[in-house]
Amino acid sequence: MNTKTLLCTGVVGTVLVMLCCVTPILVILFGLVGLSALTGYLDYVLLPALAVFIALTLYALWRRGKGSGCRSKCATGDKQ
């Protein structure tokens, strides 16, 4: 998978999950739809999703940094 795609997915996912964790967007939405009984279970889904998206972002940044070093060595013809 492309590093840029991984990074975009990780950042967008992290921002969306943070919006749902920090602001009461899902609580209001569930209340309007009639699913307010499920708001107690949101933490069981949102917190692991936040951890996964943060890990995905960190992996994409690590892979991006690792790839740029390889390109510079390969461009000059240096062997490891």
TrEMBL record:
Domain of life of the source: Bacteria
Transmembrane segments: 7-35, 41-62
Example of a GO cellular component annotation carried by this entry: membrane
Pfam family, one: Transport_MerF
Listed InterPro entries: Mercury_ion_transport_MerF
Keywords per UniProt: Membrane, Transmembrane, Transmembrane helix
Entries under NCBIfam families matching the protein: trans_MerF
Protein name (Swiss-Prot/TrEMBL): Mercury resistance system transport protein MerF
Species this chain originates from: Marinobacterium aestuarii
Lineage, broadest ranks: Bacteria, Pseudomonadati, Pseudomonadota, Gammaproteobacteria, Oceanospirillales
